[in-house]
């Protein structure tokens, strides 16, 4: 009935993925190419074909041969009809056979299977009636649950904005703080989003490194992002944009408004003075911050304060990487960036804007909770995926490795 193919033709693979509603940019063959530029990785385009030789399921299998514990990872896959239990079970068993031939120790799968959708107020608007956990458990997988996992796992949620509404309607869906921030930019900062080139990815790495110093995460070398851009742009569509600020102009705009406010205080009633003085204090603070930034960075004219890299696939634009100078967080450059990208996607005919990854919006104690709030304030829906399934193929080796790791950690603690 079904035949497993471990070397599916790239074009055939992508045609099938394009036909599936659950697929995303990360499900396409370009992800295999991006990973294999790094010689440490091996990847396979696999699938299940019916009696006519047509693909009915597809998945990118990825692992690192150099690792002590060889883990076959399937994220954003398999892509198939998850209501077809026979097909899903068949594919899982074939993936296991193929992995055993490669002497894989562990298989980890993160299916693109949506279990719930919420509006940006976190009200449930959709719940999937299909439960795929029992079938995975039937063939020996453990379900790692609904908790967010660290390490190399994907975030279980993302925020997706429906671009079908008018520009005014989209703006009205923003939180009041987002609307205020964007309005202030139009008045004072006049931050511009300028399309760049591959060469401008140096700014992305610059500000990504800056953030990594604070949050301690690994930043790939510039060549990684350059290859990523070239491959994504060749297979689909990609853009690099720069976030540009003229610091002198911004200071001048703030100063002009400051003069107006100070003149108002001369004739203001007493009950108006508190509000005016508060506005004056805020503007003076912003001006001081910008003057310090100008001196520290020797800004002359237009200055690049951030960079973003986005991809366009099927009907969706994905905000893949974006970083802004963290010392300028008060001027709302990130809000201007996301709004601009959203409108660019809408005006280019795309239906959705995926903000790509959302920390758990229900966990207010999370260190990344504010990132989730930032994204939800743009009015998108929350898409929640099922998470991770894991099957250990070489149990003795896996247990030994974990034992040695725990012993090493105890010795390091001491």
Brief summary of the model shown:
With 414 residues, the chain is of the alpha+beta class. The chain is built from 13 helices and 16 strands.
Q: How large is the count of helical segments?
A: 13
Q: Largest sheet at a glance? A: 9 strands, mixed
Proportion of strand residues: 15-25%
Give the helix level as a range of percent. Answer: 40-55%
Inertia-based shape: elongated
Name the CATH superfamily assignment of the largest domain: Gcn5-related N-acetyltransferase (GNAT)
| Radius of gyration, in angstroms, nearest whole number | 25 Å
- Assembly of the depicted chains: single chain
Amino-to-carboxy terminus distance: 58 Å
Order of strands in the sheet with the most strands?
7-6-15-9-14-13-12-11-10
Give an account of the 3D structure.
- The structure is a single chain.
- By secondary structure, the protein is an alpha+beta fold.
- The chain has two domains: 3-113 and 386-413, Gcn5-related N-acetyltransferase (GNAT) (Aminopeptidase); 160-242 and 304-384, Gcn5-related N-acetyltransferase (GNAT) (Aminopeptidase).
- The chain is built from 13 helices and 16 strands.
- The strands form three sheets. It has a nine-stranded mixed β-sheet with strand order 7-6-15-9-14-13-12-11-10. Strands 4-5-16-8 form a four-stranded mixed β-sheet. The protein has a three-stranded antiparallel β-sheet with strand order 1-2-3, sandwiched between helices.
- α2 (30-37) runs antiparallel to α8 (222-235) and α9 packs antiparallel against α10.
- The longest helix has 28 residues, at 270-297.
